Amino acid sequence: MTIPEFELLRPRTLGEASELLLKHGDEARLLAGGTTLVILMKQRTAYYPHLIDLQAIAGLDHITADGGGIRIGAMATPRAVECSPIIRNRFPALADACGKIGNVRIRATATVGGNLAHADYRLDPPPVFLILRAELVLAGPSQSRTVPIKDFYRGLYETALEPGEILVEVRIPTAPTGSRTLYLKFSSLSANDWPCLGVAALLRLSGNRCDELRLAVSGLAMKPLLIQGLEFVRNEAITDSLLDEITRIVDQQISPITDLRGSEWYKREMARVFVKRAIRELEKG
């Protein structure tokens, strides 16, 4: 199936790209890797007369250390993140999540910024960015601003991006000393399919007791979700009863959508299994 005719615009700067977004409004979309947008346009699910190609704008594909943290340009590919020694050393769960996106061809073509801005509820990297408390740099027509990723998602395909704004960078702060992170993806269909659900966890222990726990999930609500109300685990040993209480809190906050990958009931059951599994695996180190 062919794509309907459109105009390809190739700005050289972020300012030009922002101006084009403002000029064409809802009739334009940014084109980064195109792995989702091109398919949607081929399927006639979406159509935009103007596509604004970001490939010609230099300096948006970096992966650099920033003290103990990391800065990732929006045009960096998931494959680059997956293979980056910096990411693998400091944030292995992020490398793992990016390595679970589709297949290697998709990972080498898609972009980190496009993945995040698409705001699908089933994506792999967002839960990891949520537990790492990443911040997103949004460049607008007159100025840039930084938004915590927990405030970026508003709903299905809805984000905090304002007219003319472009996601240009992800900033990840230094991870808590002694913390461990993990991402688990459960696919009920093929291995390279959208996840039925994804669970990201950060655990910091003091001896055999929990000092901090962060959990985030995908595929279980209308947007990637950071679980709230886990402060009670501090100074608690990780027991079966504690895990039951944690999964009870998770169950209260999720709202799974029945689809081809599972019913609401099934996804709730799998959420309990994978949340417990993630915490136990991190506990073992």
Tell me what you see in this structure.
With 285 residues, this protein is α+β, with helices and mostly antiparallel strands. It folds into three domains: 47 residues, Uridine Diphospho-n-acetylenolpyruvylglucosamine Reductase, domain 2, CATH 3.30.43; 110 residues, Uridine Diphospho-n-acetylenolpyruvylglucosamine Reductase, domain 3; 106 residues, CO dehydrogenase flavoprotein, C-terminal domain (Enolase-like, domain 1), CATH 3.30.390. 32% of the residues lie in helices and 26% in strands. It starts with 6 loop residues before the first strand and ends with a helix.
Instruction: Estimate the global geometry from the Cα principal axes.
Output: globular
The helix content is: 25-40%
Beta-strand fraction estimate: 25-35%
Q: Give the end-to-end Cα distance, rounded to a whole number of Å.
A: 49 Å
Number of helices: 10
Total number of beta strands: 15
Overall number of structural domains: 3
What Rg, in angstroms, do the CA atoms define?
19 Å
Q: Helix- and strand-based class?
A: alpha+beta
What is the strand arrangement across the widest sheet?
4-5-10-6-7
**Uncertain stretches:** none
**CATH class membership of the largest domain:** Alpha Beta
- According to CATH, the fold-level topology of the largest domain is Uridine Diphospho-n-acetylenolpyruvylglucosamine Reductase, domain 3
Quick recap of the structure?
The chain has helices at residues 14-24, 37-42, 78-83, 85-90, 92-98, 104-109, 112-118, 125-131, 240-253, 264-284, and strands spanning 7-9, 28-31, 50-53, 63-66, 69-73, 135-139, 144-148, 153-155, 158-159, 166-172, 179-186, 197-206, 209-218, 225-226, 236-237.
